[in-house]
Every structure is written in structure tokens, then in C-alpha cells.
Amino acid sequence: MECHVSAKAGNFALDVNIQVPAHDGWLGIAGPSGAGKSTFLQALAGFNPSASVAGNWGDLSFSQARNVVLVSAQTPLFPALSVAQNISLVATHNQCEQEQQSVVSLCECETLLTKNTASLSGGELQRVKLARALLASPKLLLLDESFSAMDKALRQRILYRLKAYLGEQVRVILVSHDVDDILQTCENLAQINGGQCLAVGRPEALINAEADTDTLPLSCVIYAAVQAVDPAAGLMALSLGKQLIQVKLQPGVSPGTKAKVRLSAKEITLATADAEVVKTNRLACQIIQVETVNHRQYRVALSCGEQKLVALVSQEVFTRSDLKVGGPVYACFDE
Ligand SMILES: Nc1ncnc2c1ncn2[C@@H]1O[C@H](COP(=O)(O)OP(=O)(O)OP(=O)(O)O)[C@@H](O)[C@H]1O
């Protein structure tokens, strides 16, 4: 996939070039507020007359694409119509009536159908907008913070079902401030800042790389085999070599598959072998690098077999615990 977009929004200039393998599915876009993410999507959707758009994604040409559907905070609903009427209007217009029920169920809109759109909460509105977008038969679906008002469990469920529903027929670009949404669904991640694409690659690689904390939170991705799942407790066990950790269960995960879990550097507490830390998980690691972040904090890189982790530790704790590069340490964190 090659995508070249330049556009103006007021005094803001966007010039974004992104290249990823053509057969890859979803592209995630991350970046700080004001980076140009919405400007990029609006240009792709054809809403910015000043924009120049070029490139293609497989057989989809960005400059000539039809059925480009953008879902954003500005996406309007018909205020005088109920949710059911809003949805069925789009379904009828696009001759997608037979898909209406499955889309309503995918977006968990069943209990909203009789409501007036003015009475919907932020997350409910987003679900209705998404349902309408899916019934517009998109070839390119642009999602601009379309899950931001939903709780984590709900957005994970909907994203999981959405990915399965759209398959490989629909290309998706997902803008999100929640990097976990991108990690869960996107094959590639582009970091945008100042109207430019700073880096593009596999989300787990970019999140594990030397972090640019302006665009990505300092964290690492554990990619490990699922040993067991406990749906009642909402937990799953992952194996890292001979060590097991327990983390929150993700939709669609089963024993024998692999799962990606992001661990924020702030979630990890370091402990020496004999220290007491009350956390669910305790991974034996080795300290491989220590860097000063500011006058109070160290960024500590850890290895656990082939897995790399990163922790943020106050200088006081680091010194008091007598931690040293090359030395053993436990990385402790909750599920
Ligand atoms: N219609 C407009 N007129 C003037 N300036 C605009 C317009 N639209 C966007 N901008 C400016 O362009 C810049 C990028 O805005 P954009 O909405 O693309 O950022 P973003 O990355 O989506 O931010 P956020 O995460 O806060 O939604 C901002 O500085 C914004 O003020």
C-alpha cells in the first residue's frame, strides 16, 4: 500500500507518505492531539477540497475510491428519526437489508433501536454511527476515534467482531489515542506528528522500539503463547519460556494461539529476589540498559528470554534496591 496525502487546514500543512505491504489489512494511526490525524482522514474521505491524494491499496485507488466511509465525531445522524429508522434508512438505500440484523448485533445496538438519537450516550452514539457506516457498503472505512467513548471491554468485543466481519474485502484506517485498539486490530501502525508520518511498521515493533513518548506511551508488547483461559474470571495465562503470567482475557483467544499484551512501563514495579511486592505477576528478568529520563526517573530495559520489557523507576528506588545493569531483577505487575 502506498498513500500520499497533502492538505491544508487553516495554517496547518499536512504532507503524509505511508508505505506498507499491500496484502496487510488494517492500518492504525497514532499521534498526539493536533498531529493531523483527522486532517489526513478527511482528505482521504474527499472532504478537503485543498487536498491532494494519491496511491493505492491493492486494487483500491485512493484518488478514485468510491464507497469511502468516514466515521467521526462530526458524522451526523437524523435527529428526528429513531435509532432503528436511522439504521434501516441506510440499509434500504444501500440494499443491505439482509445484513441489518447482524450489523445491529455486531455493534450491540439491539437495546437502542427504539430510542431517539438525542437520548443516546457518547458510546451508544458511536455504536449507531458504526452500524450505519457498515451498512453503507464501505470499501475503505476510516474510523476517527470511533470507539473513544466505549469502555475497554465493549470496544475490544466490537473491534474483534468488526475485524472478522469485514474480512479482507474492506480496507480500514483506524485513528485512535488508545494504542491497545491498534495493537489488537492493525497489521501496521503509522505515527503522525506535525502533519508528517514519522515512522511506520508493525505496532509491536514500534511500541517495543525506543519510544517517542509524544506519540506512543512508553511500553512494551508481550507476544506469547496462550496456555489457558478462564472466561469466568476474565483471565488468561501466557507462557514466556518456563514462566507463566496471568493477564486479562481478550476476545477470540484460546489455548494454543498467541496473544499480544501491552504492558505500560508505569505498570511495572522492579523488585530484587528477596523483596516483597504484592502483584499478580513476577517475571524473572535481567537488566540490560538504564537511561535517565529526567532528574527523577530511570528508564530500565529488561530482558526475559527473547522478550524485552521496559520499566520506569524512580532514581531513589533504583539506588535503594541496588539494581545494576546485567543484574537479576523481578518485573512485577498486575493482570
Ligand atoms: N478547519 C480548520 N481550520 C483551521 N485549522 C484547522 C482546521 N482543521 C484542523 N485544523 C488544525 O490542523 C491541525 C491538525 O488538526 P487535526 O484535527 O488533524 O489533529 P488530530 O491529530 O486529529 O488531533 P486530535 O487527536 O486532537 O483529534 C490542528 O492544529 C488544527 O487546529
TrEMBL record:
<keyword id="KW-0067">ATP-binding</keyword>
<feature type="domain" description="ABC transporter">
    <location>
        <begin position="1"/>
        <end position="219"/>
    </location>
</feature>
<dbReference type="InterPro" id="IPR027417">
    <property type="entry name" value="P-loop_NTPase"/>
</dbReference>
<dbReference type="GO" id="GO:0016887">
    <property type="term" value="F:ATP hydrolysis activity"/>
</dbReference>
<keyword id="KW-0547">Nucleotide-binding</keyword>
<dbReference type="InterPro" id="IPR008995">
    <property type="entry name" value="Mo/tungstate-bd_C_term_dom"/>
</dbReference>
<protein>
    <recommendedName>
        <fullName>ABC transporter domain-containing protein</fullName>
    </recommendedName>
</protein>
<dbReference type="Pfam" id="PF00005">
    <property type="entry name" value="ABC_tran"/>
</dbReference>
<dbReference type="InterPro" id="IPR050093">
    <property type="entry name" value="ABC_SmlMolc_Importer"/>
</dbReference>
<dbReference type="InterPro" id="IPR003593">
    <property type="entry name" value="AAA+_ATPase"/>
</dbReference>
<dbReference type="InterPro" id="IPR017871">
    <property type="entry name" value="ABC_transporter-like_CS"/>
</dbReference>
<keyword id="KW-0813">Transport</keyword>
<dbReference type="GO" id="GO:0005524">
    <property type="term" value="F:ATP binding"/>
</dbReference>
<dbReference type="InterPro" id="IPR003439">
    <property type="entry name" value="ABC_transporter-like_ATP-bd"/>
</dbReference>
